[in-house]
Amino acid sequence: MLRPVYLHQRGLAGLVSWDPAPHEPAETPELAGGGPTAAVVYLHAVAARSVATCRDPSAAKGVAMNTPTPIWSAGGHRLLSLRVLVPLALLAYACVFGLYTLQRDVAVREQQVEEHARQDVTLRMTHLQGTLEYLLRTGQLEALREMISYLGSSPDLRVGLLLDDQGIVLASTRLPLIGQPARLAWPELASPEATARMKAAQERMSGDVRVSEDGSRVVGYCPINLGAGLHEARWGFLYLQHDLSQLKAAQRYRAERAALRSSLLLVLIAGLMGLFFHFALGRRVQRLETAARHLAGGRLNVRAGLRGVDELGTLGRAFDEMAERISQDQEALRRSEASFRTLIERTPDAIFVHREHTVLFANLAAVALLGHEREEELRGRKTEELLMPGEQDALAESSQSGAAREVRFRHRGGQQVLGEVVTFSVPFDGHPAVVSIARDITERKQVQEKLRSTDRMVSLGTLAAGVAHELNNPISYVLSNLRFAVDELGEQTASGTPLPTEQVQEVQQALREALEGGERMRNIVRDLRSFSRREDEGFGPVDIHAVLDSCSSLARSEIRHRAQLVKEYGEIPQVLGNESRLGQLFLNLLVNAAQAIPEGDAKANTVRLTTARAEAGWVVISVQDTGVGIPPENLQRLFKPFFTTKPVGVGTGLGLSICHGIVTAMGGRIEVSSEVGKGTTFRVLMPVAEKGSQATPGAKSS
């Protein structure tokens, strides 16, 4: 598997034209004005500009000469300096903080006023309720009116009314209202809300005190027992309305004074900070600014030389360290460019750099891969000319997550060269380009095909003795039955008498059994031929049940002394694959399943073949055994080449690796689960063939 190689922008450009000009210091452009901010802001540009100078030393002079001169005036520059910006920022913060504090303090104070007033009205009504009821019971109406009138001395009480059960004012803080109906004396009492609150207070037999929606007053209703009537007790109401406007105004005034004091304190701090920045930091920042200008101009030997333990001193030392590192990196970069170019030229993997389907650069390995002699023969050619038909867009698409893909290249001689390619984007010569790194895998593919063929033959060799036994049994009874028929017919011919009906039936039975034996041998030979043929390597619809039946027939001699073979076929469609390769896959899995079970107790063990539909568009085929199982530490290495736990001479370690390759090449996947002492299950998931294919009939047999 290839991995993307990091290609430095300057390194790639150097492969085409690499002629760095000597470093020439440039004149330092002077900026109008001056101040701390310019230096600090300027430092951000210095790092990027210095890195650009290191990557392209020939551009150092151009960078210095093309540096734009600031166009702001000296006065405008001072306004942007730290000594002005920091005090202004603190002043703005003081204003915002003052406004926020004022708004929050006013809201809190108003809430406290409302809560205090509500509690005061509640306590006053609770106290008055008992006193008023006593005066009413004793008939002291004048004393009652004097008590209500006395409430009017409170400056915050807007009105107080005592209403009888008919809604007539019995007593009031405003004497002219006595004797008038409530709706005329105080129109608010005629509203539906007031009526509902009085009714609710009477039902609860307790007062109801609330703050109005606009927060300007507190209104309370309290039921008063006026005495017994003819049939039931008479109830009136005490109504109090408390004005909050003056109390809230007083609290708002106090909040404004507190916010003003806080803001003035912050303004004083801002002024002191401005003086500090002006006198303590201005000169040092200006010195750092001058050094930054020189460094941006290409004079890499300039240092700020600031001292101190504060942040500015730390910044100066960091600036000097940066300048020293840039100087060292520039020299190191010059030395590494030659090594980098050699690395790209001599790497064994072919590297193509192309833009808009045109080759810009190719290394020696790329030249050799396509059978050319010089890089100039490939430069300027279209990428389509380097690829086989059908591969025109293979180099234009970036690889996903760095994964390699197979691409068929066209050799100079016309033959096909198979390459494993990784493609990604990279800047080249200042413009976006595409880099394709290819590795020749033609020989590897040939070796893999030989290994598959070898594994197929190894599997046949493993089954050779069993297949011979399978052929020997039908041959024996075919020959025996034919001899019997010849003997019976010979005796009849010698005696000249016809055979009895019973003997004729025996001869016919013997011939039918011989015919069955011949069919059995023909099926075994057909399965062997189907398994071993290689001429058909294309993909198409495959009846997976027929493949499984053929493989189980070949593996019968390997399984029957170890376990019982159980088939559980579901109704599944045909899968997309290659019949011969699928036969090799499942024969390998069946033989492995049989070899995982010790001989001697075939009735207690099973090898189970199961087919079913998986998620949409997939078919799952399971091969399950009740063998010894696979230890967890071996499961991760199970599909690696040459890994085997079998004794020497029993397995090559290639079977499961080739099975994995067969499944993935056909677009499927293979999974394994195992438990030591209980057995192993291999699950093969294959894609369903196109919709026009016929479904394989389901059956279940053992």
Q: Helical proportion?
A: 40-55%
Number of helices: 18
How would a textbook summarize the main sheet?
Answer: 6 strands, mixed
Proportion of beta-strand residues? 15-25%
Rg from alpha-carbon coordinates: 51 Å
Q: Which stretches are poorly predicted, pLDDT < 50 over at least 5 residues?
A: 1-79, 693-702
Name of the CATH class of the domain at 447-701: Alpha Beta
Give the rounded overall mean pLDDT: 76
What fold name stands as the CATH topology of the domain at 447-701? Heat Shock Protein 90
CATH homologous superfamily descriptor of the domain at 447-701 = Histidine kinase-like ATPase, C-terminal domain
> Would you report the number of β strands?
20
Give the spatial strand order of the biggest sheet.
Answer: 17-18-16-15-12-20
Shape: flat
Terminal Cα span: 44 Å
Describe the oligomeric state of these chains in a short phrase: single chain
Which secondary-structure class do the elements indicate? Answer: alpha+beta
CATH architecture of the domain at 447-701: 2-Layer Sandwich
Q: Can you characterise this structure?
A:
By secondary structure, the protein is of the alpha+beta class. It has helices spanning 9-16, 36-55, 60-65, 74-79, 82-137, 141-151, 182-185, 192-204, 245-296, 311-346, 364-369, 442-495, 501-532, 544-554, 556-559, 579-595, 632-635, 655-665; strands spanning 157-163, 169-172, 208-211, 217-228, 233-243, 350-355, 358-362, 405-410, 416-428, 431-440, 540-542, 564-568, 572-573, 575-577, 606-613, 618-625, 669-675, 679-687, 695-696, 700-701. 50% of the residues lie in helices and 18% in strands. The strands form five sheets. A six-stranded mixed sheet has the order 17-18-16-15-12-20, covered by helices on one side. Strands 2-1-5-4-3 form a five-stranded antiparallel sheet, sandwiched between helices. Strand 6 (350-355) and strand 7 (358-362) form a beta hairpin. Helix 14 (544-554) crosses helix 16. The chain starts with 8 loop residues before the first helix and ends with a strand. Residues 1-79 and 693-702 have low confidence and may be disordered.
